[in-house]
Amino acid sequence: MKKSYLFIGLLALFIISLFIDRYASLSIVELRHPIINKSMVIISNLATLISITIISIILLAAIIYLKKDKKYLSSMVISLIFSALLVALIKYIVKRPRPFIELGIEALENKSNYSFPSGHTNSVFSLIPFISIYFKKFKYIWLFFSVLVSFSRIYLGVHYLSDIIFSMIFGLSISYLFIYLENRYNISKLFKIKKQ
User: Where do the structural domains in the chain lie, given as residue ranges?
Assistant: First the structure.
């Protein structure tokens, strides 16, 4: 039930964000300061490095080392790859220009491809369901980091608010879908990952 309210809320935010994209981007750009600029670039770069590679490896190693139930390992790996591929496909189909191109603002990060949706946001939010399962104590820390990463993408001028909200919904949805499929159809058997 809580997940339903979360998705309804995010969907409502996404619809609203479509109408205030321009205003949100221009307003956030006005907050720029040299010190904050550097911080946001670092946070954004950390998301690329941490969420896709290091965190995935750490999660896998920690789950195996701590002898936690490996039931959702295959679901995690598949959902991360699947959502990343779908984000790349949607970008190619939609071809939405980035805010710094449409709004004439300075981009604090060099980006040449398209805006919608946000790969960074998708990546960090895709991990939330699995961190909630395996490392509950850290889920709010990761949620805070995920929101910060998402904000940095707008701040840097490379994404609109609607790109971010959609990517939150998308990342969470794909992960919860594969968790559901694991619970319903035991897809880990296909990859010979034994449950403890």
Answer: 33-191
